[in-house]
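Course assignment 3, question 2. Fill in each field.
Student: A.L.
Task: Predict the tertiary structure for the chain below.
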Amino acid sequence: MLANAQVLLFLVLALVLFGIEAWALIDCARRPAGAFLAAGKRTKNFWLVLTAAAAVVGFIAVPPPLGLGLLGGGFLQFFAVIPAGVYLADVRPAVSNYGGGRRPPRSGGGGW
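Answer field:
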């Protein structure tokens, strides 16, 4: 019973980490390339490669019920989430001022 709980906990943790990596990759892909340079950050291609590599490692490390579970223990998955975390904590707020993400709600016209 305890082994099943451990497997379930590891699966949930792996899925959360993969979700963070996928979120960083999708957000990075949606931002315009000029926003990265305007914000004084590395290029968009640099962050796309890092977040894509993190997402691939994260997907490969998801345990067998839902993924491949090839990285044995998922220790590399914890290292793979670091670039995604750096992107989400540092780069994303800096680039979000330059568009490409969510659009602000339209003002005026229509409504109740």
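Instructor remarks: The mean pLDDT is 85. Helices lie at 2-30, 33-38, 44-61, 75-95.
Grade: pending
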